[in-house]
Amino acid sequence: MTILRIAEIFGPTIQGEGAVIGAPTVFVRAGGCDYRCSWCDSLHAVDSEYRHTWAKMTTEDIWDEVERLSGGVPLTVSLSGGNPAIQDFGPLIAHGKSKGFDFALETQGSVARDWFSELSPLILSPKPPSSGEEVDWDTFDACVKAAGNAETVLKIVIFDEADYLWAKEAAARYPELPLYIQPGNHTPPPPDAEDAKIDMDGIMHRYEWLIDRTLADRWFAPKILPQLHVLIWGNKRGV
Amino acid sequence: MTILRIAEIFGPTIQGEGAVIGAPTVFVRAGGCDYRCSWCDSLHAVDSEYRHTWAKMTTEDIWDEVERLSGGVPLTVSLSGGNPAIQDFGPLIAHGKSKGFDFALETQGSVARDWFSELSPLILSPKPPSSGEEVDWDTFDACVKAAGNAETVLKIVIFDEADYLWAKEAAARYPELPLYIQPGNHTPPPPDAEDAKIDMDGIMHRYEWLIDRTLADRWFAPKILPQLHVLIWGNKRGV
Q1: B238 found inside a domain
Q2: Chain B residue closest to A209 (CA)?
Q3: CATH number for the domain that contains residue B86
Q4: Which of B73, B208, B223 minimises the CB distance to A218?
Q5: At B10, is the secondary structure helix, strand, or coil?
Q6: In this predicted complex, what is the ipTM?
Q7: In angstroms, what CA-CA distances link A71 with A22, A150, B219?
Q8: For residue A191, what is the DSSP state?
Q9: 0.90 exceeded by the pTM?
Q10: What are residue A153's phi and psi, to 5 degrees?
Q11: Domain count, chain A
Q12: Is A238 inside a domain boundary?
């Protein structure tokens, strides 16, 4: 029996970013991550100090909660984290799909899984220099390959000029993948705060900067999107 | 030689709403409309009182301006209005596509054109009761048919509960089309103002209402999106 560590399950709400922005979704946020990005906005699901807050759930437990929240009406389930790819979500995806649900998953691309091919979409989010992490491109390539014919997209968070230049190079490796770029939240919530203060003006300012920088460069490949949930709800958790 | 009435051409900027939200785009805003929605946010391109401000341009004139603004680098050209379908954009689309550009077009679906089949996407935006207009569904069906295999999406602006209920019925007519709903701007700019005041708190409040209403209803088909350009630039024109 598969036991998964789950930081939170919530929704239905809208997906706030990336390829399925605006889509009604239930989030299943996995606990645990193989990265520790300097600006992580979900430390409560990453830092092992918070491990005692993660529930140990079977695939069936998780599915019961998704069904309760959605009323059994099919929607897209968003698997996030932490890094959901370090755990085995294959059985959950297979079961949910048999009930008419879709599954989106976002990961940094550090662990490839054969069940990536069941996702719609697989969102690969390689982390830029400001994160303090470094991408292993061989493993990242293996993730793209594991997805096969499943819809796969790139999403890159950008905090500064160095990240921007890095994003252009990273994206150039995968010209066939739809590309999304977004400004980071430079005032992420501390892991023990449910609704921490946020610099909304600064966030809008950075979004405008990213739009101006990209368009002035005549780099027209990416869609340039904000984090809608941040604009609506700030740092509030569970929405 | 085709002569078109053009209210404005501007960009590159991002598409602020709907199916290609976040995509770099040059807008070509046609002058003239067969509707007169009560809450129209582009009256300067609709009200014939402003007809003297619309340029008479050939297809070549328009293309030259798109090329100047984009630097000749292919992107999506957004044809808007007014109702761009009352004029013949077929030659512009054919020429631009031969140069590698894509064309998106938004219309209320009151005039069908054979060149709809060249769009990616055709955005059909049937107007809800609060507009004061009424949809001719036979003509609307003809628009869907004219698009053929071209990507076609529905986008419905919602101001109130009556609009919401109407949107659900309208969308049920086209279950196969991707669906986008968005709150309207209840403080649209007057036609002679370049940067009119806007009720941003009210706009965010209405967006939250629409999310809550839709999700509480377990209506998971639509993507629920704001007008990003309004959140960033308010009622400023030409961005």
Answers
A1: no
A2: B232
A3: 3.20.20.70
A4: B73
A5: strand
A6: 0.96
A7: 19, 27, 11
A8: T
A9: yes
A10: -130, 160
A11: 1
A12: no
